[in-house]
Amino acid sequence: MSYPKALLAARQHLVVILGLLSAAALVSWLEMPSCPVPPPLPAGEIPGALHGALSEEETRWAQAAWRYFQRNSQEETGLVDAADGRSVTTLWDTGSHLLAMIAAHRLGVIDRSEFDQRLGRVLNALARIPLFQGELPNRFYLTETLGMADAEGLPSDRGVGWSAVDIARVLVPLDVIVWNYPAHAAEASAVVRRWRLDRLVREGVLTGAVVDAQGQVEYSQEGRGAYEAYAAKALALMGIAAPAVAVSHGYAKVQGVEVPFDPRPPERFSTRNYTVGEPYVIEGLEFGWDRDGREEAWRVFRAQENRFKATGRLTAASSGPVDEAPYFVYNAVYAGTRSWQTLATDGREVSDFRFLNAGDAVGWHVLYDTEYGRQLAEKAAGLFDPERGWYAGWYETKDRVNRAMSAGTNAMVLEAMHFRQFGALVAVQPPLELAEPAPSTRPQAAQPPDGRGAAARAKPAAKSGPVLRARTGMAGSRKGKGASAAPKTSTGHGAKTRKTDARSAGKHR
Fold first, then answer.
1. What residue spans carry the region label Disordered (predicted)?
2. Which site from 226, 244, 313, 473 is most exposed, i.e. has the minimal number of CB atoms within 10 Å?
């Protein structure tokens, strides 16, 4: 039979095959996440980062930041209080503590002996913490006892649920430890082997758990915008399929710049969807931005710069603690349908508490080598106590220091100084021969590092470590209607000191 005749004879089969292929292609196209085409970037080239050996002043910044962790470390457990003097923490803040420790060691702020001792205690504590329902870390822990805490900072035998974003955060330093500190790799592995990380992603989205008012555990989507993207990258380090976040991406015009925001309404999804600086800054400092991340962060940076040009008010807007009630606020670049709102955790407008975030200011300074970045750093340079650590920032309308202190602010300063000298934290770093540490870790006695390794650029890390493997299984999926965000926060004094603790540590991401 000739070739044309064979084709003719098989025409019915070929039509069926082509039909099936066309149907499959159509289904795949229809189910692809729709992502808006990004609007044009602000005029001008995106600047490069600021790299090089630390100056004497920047060394003092790093050493002042480490003082926070020295002062707030619990002797019995090695964990650090999320907020100054309040003995509660979260997995997010514990991740910040570990990243700060790694940065402090590489910068020569602490020597290898102190690093090994502190890291060993924290890893031992994480290997012993009780887990919510025996599966994943609870939202809050008491740093003195390792016991689970509730949203009021009181001991809780059962726990209150888990945060997918917070857990993803602590995976970042654990991955760094496996690749760069083999002496501690087995300890890091022992921590993660207990956790059912497969429970964090359900039906393709990040999922958190919370115990509702009736005592029922509800599961719902967690994470918004850049926080969700950050968590997805962290989970990818463990080889866990990252959820697609493109479907939750939009743009809003702020100060003449189209900035990214998450259009999912909080009334429907029960999670805050504010655009703030923190997730963009830490993604750059820890992972190094990819092209999209670099462009999105540039939009947020430029909107803040344009606000300064229009108002004369230096702007580094982010979430963070404040030193009086309501004790925690969101300084949003964009929230809901409006820009430049400052909101309490219950959604109230509290514009008197708008403040320049010191950690963000230092982070933007090293990520973008610009005049505005230098102005932010100059303002932040006076916002630390060399004996205690960095303050949260500077109030705009009150025109004074926001004297709240937290692990998050001080960790960001140390991460920024590491990025300045060595590049991103998530990388397989070359062996580092450090000079003898300064005679004291207190800033007034500090000597600047000699810059060894300043020109070395980190190689990209592999996606998961050979030792750091999670406990996974075929856990069933339960749909939940409740919010996966941490409960609302406020604070008290005196007999209610414990109630201040968890509220200071928790964030809605």
1. 435-509
2. 473
What is the rounded CA–CA span in Å between residue 153 and residue 498? 5
Shortest CA distance to 296 belongs to which of 258, 242, 333, 335? Answer: 258
User: What tokens appear for 454 in the block?
Assistant: 């300043």
Distance CA 103, CA 107 (A): 6
Residue 190 token pair: 């022992």
CA atoms within 13 A on the CB side of 395: 17
CB atoms near residue 172 (< 10 Å): 23
At residue 328, what is the residue type? Answer: F
- Strands, E assignment, 336-400: 338-344, 355-357, 384-385, 389-390, 393-395
Q: Would you say 137 and 171 are in contact if contact means Cβ atoms under 8 Å apart? A: no
Burial (0-12, 13-18, 19+ Cβ within 10 Å), 478: exposed
Separation of first and last alpha carbons in the chain: 68
DSSP string across 422-433: H--SSEEPPP--
- CA angle 201/202/204 to nearest 5° reads 80
Which 3 state secondary structure label does DSSP give 328? Answer: strand
CB-CB contact of 153 with 145 (8 Å):
no
User: How do residues 160-190 score in pLDDT, each as one tens digit?
Assistant: 999 999 999 999 999 999 999 999 999 999 9
Q: Over the stretch 59-94, which tens digit does the pLDDT of each residue have?
A: 999 999 999 999 999 999 999 999 998 999 999 999
**Separation of alpha carbons 343 and 274, rounded Å:** 10
Closest CA to 151 of 136, 480, 159: 159
Please name every residue paired with 208 in a beta bridge, in sequence order, or none if there are none: 220
CA–CA gap between residue 354 and residue 332 (Å, rounded) = 9
Q: How many helices (H) and strands (E) does the chain have?
A: 15, 21
Decide if 269 contacts 218 (C-beta within 8 A).
Answer: no
Q: How far, in whole angstroms, is CA 275 from its chain's centroid?
A: 14
